[in-house]
Amino acid sequence: MIEGRGTGLTADPWATLRGLTHARIGLGRTGDALAGREVRALQAAHAAARRAVHATLDPARLALGEPFIEVKSRAPDRGVFVRRPDLGRRLRAQDATRLPHAPCDVVFVIADGLSALAAARQAPGVLEAVRVALPEWTIGPVIVAHNARVALGDEIGALIGARCVVMMIGERPGLSAADSLSLYLTWGPRIGRMDSERNCLSNIHAHGGMNHDEAAFRLAGLLRGARALGRSGVALKDDSMSARLPPATP
Amino acid sequence: MVFHATLQGERYRFDDLRTLLARASPLRSGDELIGVAAADPVERVAAREALANVPLRHFLNEAVIPFEQCDVTRLVVERHDAAAFAPVAHMTVGQWRDWLLGYEADTAALGALARGLTPEMVSAVSKLMRNQDLIAVARKVRVVTAFRNTQGLTGRLGSRLQPNHPTDDARGIAAALLDGLLLGAGDAVLGINPATDSIETGMMLVRMLDDVRLRYDIPTQSCVLTHITNSLAMIERGAPVDLVFQSIAGTQRANEGFGVSLALLDEAHHAARSLRRGSVGENVMYFETGQGAAISADAHFGVDQQTLEVRAYAVAREYAPLLVNTVVGFIGPEYLYDGKQIIRAGLEDHFCGKLMGLPMGCDVCYTNHAEADQDDSDDLMMLLAAAGVNFLIAVPGGDDVMLNYQSLSYHDILTLRSIYGVAPAPEFEHWLDRMALLDGARRLSANPPRALPGFLNDARE
Questions:
Q1: Tell me, what CATH number does A133's domain have?
Q2: Mutation to test the B interface, candidates A87, A236, A242, A249, most B Cβ within 10 Å
Q3: Which of A67, A168, B273, B408 is the most exposed place for a label (fewest CB within 10 A)?
Q4: What digits encode the pLDDT tens for the residues B171-227?
Q5: Which residues of chain B have pLDDT under 70?
Q6: Contact residues, A window 16-35, toward B, CB-based 8 Å cutoff
Q7: Which pLDDT score, from 0 to 100, does residue A176 have?
Q8: What local confidence, expressed as pLDDT, does residue B22 receive?
Q9: Per its UniProt record, what Pfam families does this chain match (chain B) (predicted)?
Q10: Structural domains in chain B?
Q11: Does residue A110 form part of some domain?
């Protein structure tokens, strides 16, 4: 018994519904199990995601059109980075001393996180749009960070003297999107900030996720809200923090 | 207190109970990350030898996290039931392990014991058990809860239908919801993880789920898994909230990281119960947990991640939840490195949760940066079904397009029903019959979308 798509003359009853979501709905079935082609399709997507996890961020391909400062965390390579999030949350010593003290309203960090592909594809577009949305804000130098976790922004923001840091960081790759970006906003960045003190916009990508303009619009709204409130986190509502466990943060 | 063991001519010393538990724990990356794992396999087994000789009573006198520094420790001490503990009070951890596997430790005896147990006792005994022991004992425990159907009965396996969408699009969610219902999933809960934390979106989603439930008269419950403060706000605004969700952890500081306190959990529990929306029961809370949560929040106090996980269950059981599940492979390889560690942790969490008296389910899952794949998930779902897990989570095709990880598919739930001869909750099974979604052999038919007519036409936008 094989049902579902591609079974011959009758039209696929799921065709319209499949246009509403990238979720794997209306899959072919044999007995209780998924049809073989669906199993192989999932394996192919998983293989691509595994490759994205181990990719590196190439600043030249960001085409930022402005000067940027490149920094690295204390995790020396991708293998250590995956297993040691603590090392990904701190700057290596030479980069910590190299960052300028340049007080500003907000500093943006383009970070690889768990998908350098996401940072490369989404961060420059979001950054360009958010600059337009925040004409009155002073914006610090763009930072490009390697082997970076979300909390690395706390140290960067504190060293620069920014009132707020926005980490533009690659999410761990999913099967339908290996290039999905998250934005983490932390008001008053300093080492030791907790996840509940951040706000997040997630799922910024071109496969049915949030587009760059919408992300920039919502980020600008959150930034204004945080400035008015003098803080970020659970007290600042209308954010996009997933209700799941904070460890989901890259 | 200092503990010692001599193994193969070497004498090992463990400075306190916290250290002893950590060294005895099966190898996992989270304990290595915070530097509490055993230095080598021999030290690990030596620690188990020492742990086997610790009297259970000792756990009432030595806290792994000081009473003054953690409200979870205070909760455990204050709520300990000495009468329930009495049947095992004279045993060591090692003796208790053997007792648990004995024939006299039956369903009634294990159920009566729950309130006499502390998380650290339960964690300790699990470290002396092999995977098959965790399955064999958990299988004897029954924890039955109810809201609009009855979860946890013998011969039943619940499923959470998780129709997430990356932008919370109502029609996209409805399409995934329909897919799951037609495949017979969703008796444990129709539960959405929203991509946004907005209260308006939450209200829209909870109303949409309730509309679907009412239209097709589905005997199940819904939940939007948003922060507990959002659920409270939605209740205040009159939203039809069935279950209140919250992620919880095993230390006060980690819970602060989640933005929750025991007082807040209490408030939400009362608020949800006051709505009186259940038809066959009043269990209104839904908790998720996972090894590594407290480490991730830098709130671990040098305690191993599995012991911390069981402490979260001490929090959960205060609120008589309908559902609790460990999101076992979700947190990432820094806590559970590969399929072997994920499978072991899933079995531990289920066993420990059940022994603590919780209606334990599991999100059998892995992320793309872990050394695991669908074969590992197959193994764990089979083992958990053998262990009598209350419910499992399922998403379309096993691929969650919002949270970016792989869980089980609705098809996997069908496979488990066939292999283990289990069925969904009786009220929900009856609904599948009423809607003619089963075939003559009581298997799911190949149901086309029109089997639930009008589903997308009326879904609230």
A1: 3.40.50.11240
A2: A242
A3: A67
A4: 999 999 999 999 999 999 999 999 888 999 999 999 999 999 999 999 999 999 999
A5: 458-461
A6: 17-18, 20-27, 29, 31-34
A7: 79
A8: 98
A9: EutB (PF06751)
A10: 3-138 (1.10.220.70), 145-451 (3.20.20.70)
A11: yes
A193 occurs within a structural domain: yes
Tokens standing for residue A53? 């996890």
Encode pLDDT of B420-433 as tens digits: 999 999 999 999 99
Pairing of strands B189-192, B158-161: parallel
B403 is in an annotated binding site: no
Judge whether A4 lies within some domain: no
Using an 8 Å CB-CB cutoff, list chain A residues near B411. Answer: 27, 29, 32-34
Closest CA to B290 of B227, B238, B348: B348
Hey, is the C-beta of A245 within 8 angstroms of any chain B C-beta?
Answer: yes
If one counts the domains in chain A, the total is: 1
Measured CA to CA, the distance from residue B326 to residue B310 in angstroms comes to: 10
pLDDT of residue A10: 58
* Contact: B333, A83; criterion CB under 8 Å: yes
For chain B, how far is it from start to end, CA to CA, in angstroms? 61
pLDDT in tens, A95-114: 999 999 999 999 999 999 99
Question: In which band, very low, low, confident or very high, does the pLDDT at A66 lie, cut at 50, 70 and 90?
Answer: confident
Residue at A5 is within a domain: no
- What are B414's two structure tokens? 């069908």
List the domain range (segments joined by +) for residue A116.
Answer: 59-248
Tokens matching residue B163: 């129709």
- The predicted complex's ipTM stands at 0.94
CB contact at 8 A, B143 and B162: no
